[in-house]
């Protein structure tokens, strides 16, 4: 990175933190510290919701996903707009009319304190760990590619977020997120423009689309039904819908964002705006990856984008040479395909496409061989390029100054997701645990002070976990899975709370335990794609709770009949 | 029809149009 890049990065981060501290000054009541005084309007809520979901990994890995697997990941978001409509109809009016601080507070009004505490503890465990990963995941990618110190990167991201989140609470978080999201999206737009401009002069965007399409990278929609493939239309519309319902409807990191709305209408508008623009936004980020993919059809890509993945020996050198040979064959076939398409020569275009796909397969084979060798030499070698493609492109092909802008975009995204995490962890532990179970009679000022200390404590925990994550290796994936394992069940608990009248807290907790066992069973013993676990968790929770309700209602009716019998 | 009901329909119609557009995009360049 040049001096100009450092200047852009440093200035952006300092400005964001200073702005957050200034926006969040003078917070003396719980309402203002946890819910920004319930005074925000829908544009701020909408961008804050989107920035919470869009972590640095969204901007680093999603383009890489398009590079390695195509654009089909966009289907994961297809259920989201439907979820926004359902939550606006059913959840927002409840939360807003009860004037709750957290989603779990509502559960007590319906099932009692046990269910509230259980659900908030599940949230604290899952969000506590994943906030650490939100810091660690971009830090490791950035430090591997730029050679930065991972510990320092973790610490800098964590410290910057802790400063304004602790001092300014929800108001600072929501307002900084507006700017962070705009910077991140601006950075992506710049990257797209540079990727397109960096294509060879005789290759147009339309030509690029033909090449990407023939190599299966523009596979945005797949209507075939298959529970073992992760992303198709059905898994997105059903599994994706349930994930979105659970995430936006029951996860405090999101619920807190729209509880800041001045009225229920402002909260609903914020959610609905997210429902309108989220799918196109993800399509856009994936499209950046597809264009980077086409760029690397004409400029030789490295064998592995992760610079630490390599091996010595003749076999590895042979695989590397083969990788380059097949790249040249691929490039020639791509040029032939473009020429044939322009000449409307269908037969020649088809032949070129076949050659292109064959060369692509050979290229992938050479890479897979190299991966085996690299793994043999170093079992910890990471041969998955998804996380490293986009940043490598940015570092090598963006001009000075813009590299700094993209780094600022990635840091902003990391900070925005982390800030919501810390803010929600503090509000849940302050309201659902401290105020409800430990100290019920403190003053408002004491609770605000406790919330600030808890924000700081969760921040320190998240940075500490990010440091520890270095040693977790493949367990990181398990931490990421943790959320998916709980989402269906937690959604089931809320569905029972909202839509049933007579199911008791005990029946709900029992059903939740059974559903968790079923979900973990799906993970361990089947090859069901993870989006479907949510369907299992939700269905088992609701069905078992209803079964217990009707069985106990039947027993009660029978014993009543016996007591009043002849 | 209430203001919000119109918005709900708009969000769902937008989704339907996006799916159709993405499908056409997938078909056009495969």
**Which two chains touch over the largest interface?**
A-B, 30 and 17 residues
Round the Cα radius of gyration of chain A to an integer and report it. Answer: 26 Å
| N-end to C-end Cα span of chain A | 90 Å
Strand % of chain B is: under 5%
Largest β sheet strand count, sense and barrel closure of chain A: none
If you compute it from the alpha carbons, what radius of gyration of chain B comes out, rounded to the nearest whole angstrom? 13 Å
Q: List how many beta strands of chain A DSSP finds.
A: 0
Q: Summarize model confidence as the mean pLDDT of chain B.
A: 92
Structural class of chain A: mainly alpha
Helix content of chain B: over 70%
What portion of residues of chain A belong to β-strands? under 5%
Total beta strands of chain B? 0
SS field, number of helical segments of chain A? 20
Low-confidence stretches of chain B: none
Count of helix runs of chain B: 1
Percent helix range of chain A = over 70%
The global form of chain B is rod-shaped
Describe the structure.
- The complex is a heterodimer of chains A (566) and B (30).
- Chain A is mostly helical.
- Chain A has helices spanning 3-23, 30-35, 42-53, 56-69, 80-98, 103-111, 113-146, 150-197, 205-214, 233-250, 252-259, 264-298, 314-342, 346-377, 389-397, 402-438, 444-469, 475-499, 505-525, 531-563.
- The longest helix of chain A is centred in the N-terminal third of the chain and has 48 residues, at 150-197.
- Chain A is globular, with a radius of gyration of 26 Å.
- Chain A starts with a helix and ends with a helix.
- The mean pLDDT of chain A is 90.
- With 30 residues, chain B is mainly α.
- Helices cover 87% and strands 0% of the residues of chain B.
- Chain B has one helix spanning 3-28.
- The longest helix of chain B is centred in the middle third of the chain and has 26 residues, at 3-28.
- Chain B starts with a helix and ends with a helix.
- The mean pLDDT of chain B is 92.
- At the A-B interface, helix 5, helix 9 and helix 12 of A face helix 1 of B.
């Amino acid at each position: 990175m040049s001096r100009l890049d450092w200047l852009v990065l440093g200035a952006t981060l300092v400005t964001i933190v200073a702005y957050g501290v200034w926006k969040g000054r003078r917070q003396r009541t719980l309402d203002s510290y946890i819910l920004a005084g319930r005074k925000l309007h829908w544009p701020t809520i909408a961008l804050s919701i989107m920035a919470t979901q869009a972590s640095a990994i969204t901007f680093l890995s999603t383009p890489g996903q398009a590079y390695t697997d195509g654009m089909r990941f966009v289907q994961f978001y297809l259920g989201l707009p439907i979820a926004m409509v359902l939550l606006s109809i059913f959840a927002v009016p409840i939360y807003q009319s009860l004037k709750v601080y957290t989603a779990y507070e509502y559960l007590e009004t319906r099932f009692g304190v046990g269910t509230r505490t259980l659900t908030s503890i599940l949230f604290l465990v899952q969000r506590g760990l994943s906030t650490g990963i939100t810091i660690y995941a971009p830090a490791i990618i950035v430090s591997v590619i730029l050679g930065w110190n991972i510990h320092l990167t973790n610490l800098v991201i964590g410290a910057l977020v802790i400063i304004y989140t602790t001092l300014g609470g929800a108001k600072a978080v929501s307002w900084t997120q507006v700017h962070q999201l705009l910077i991140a999206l601006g950075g992506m737009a710049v990257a797209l423009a540079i990727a397109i401009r960096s294509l060879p002069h005789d290759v147009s965007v339309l030509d690029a689309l033909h090449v990407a399409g023939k190599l299966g990278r523009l596979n945005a929609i797949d209507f075939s039904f298959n529970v073992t493939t992760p992303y198709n239309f059905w898994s997105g519309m059903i599994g994706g819908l349930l994930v979105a319902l659970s995430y936006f409807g029951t996860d405090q990191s999101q619920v807190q964002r729209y509880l800041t709305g001045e009225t229920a209408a402002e909260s609903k508008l914020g959610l609905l705006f997210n429902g309108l623009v989220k799918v196109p936004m993800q399509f856009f980020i994936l499209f950046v990856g597809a264009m980077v993919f086409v760029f690397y059809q004409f400029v030789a890509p490295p064998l592995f984008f992760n610079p630490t993945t390599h091996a010595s020996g003749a076999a590895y050198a042979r695989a590397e040479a083969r990788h380059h040979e097949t790249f040249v064959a691929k490039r020639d076939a791509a040029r032939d395909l473009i020429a044939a398409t322009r000449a409307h020569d269908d037969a020649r275009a088809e032949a070129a496409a076949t050659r292109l796909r064959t060369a692509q397969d050979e290229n992938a084979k050479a890479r897979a061989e190299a991966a085996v060798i690299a793994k043999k030499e170093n079992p910890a070698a990471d041969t998955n390029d998804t996380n490293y493609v986009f940043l490598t492109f940015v570092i090598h092909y963006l001009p000075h100054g813009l590299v700094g802008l993209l780094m600022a975009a990635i840091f902003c995204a990391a900070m925005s997701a982390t800030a919501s995490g810390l803010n929600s962890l503090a509000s849940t532990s302050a309201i659902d645990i401290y105020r409800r179970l430990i100290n019920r009679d403190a003053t408002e000022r004491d609770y605000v002070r406790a919330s600030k200390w808890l924000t700081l404590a969760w921040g320190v925990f998240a940075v500490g976990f990010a440091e520890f994550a270095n040693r977790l290796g493949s367990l990181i994936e398990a931490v990421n899975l943790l959320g998916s394992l709980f989402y269906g069940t937690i959604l089931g608990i809320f569905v029972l709370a909202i839509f049933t009248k007579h199911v008791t807290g005990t029946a709900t907790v029992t059903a939740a335990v059974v559903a968790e066992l079923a979900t973990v069973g799906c993970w361990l013993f089947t090859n069901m794609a993870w989006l479907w676990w949510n369907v299992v968790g939700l269905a088992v929770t609701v069905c078992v709770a209803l079964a217990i309700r009707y069985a106990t209602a039947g027993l009660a009716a029978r014993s009543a009949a016996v007591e009043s019998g002849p | 029809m209430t203001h919000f009901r119109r918005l709900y329909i708009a969000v769902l119609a937008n989704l339907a149009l996006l799916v159709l557009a993405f499908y056409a995009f997938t078909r056009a360049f495969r």
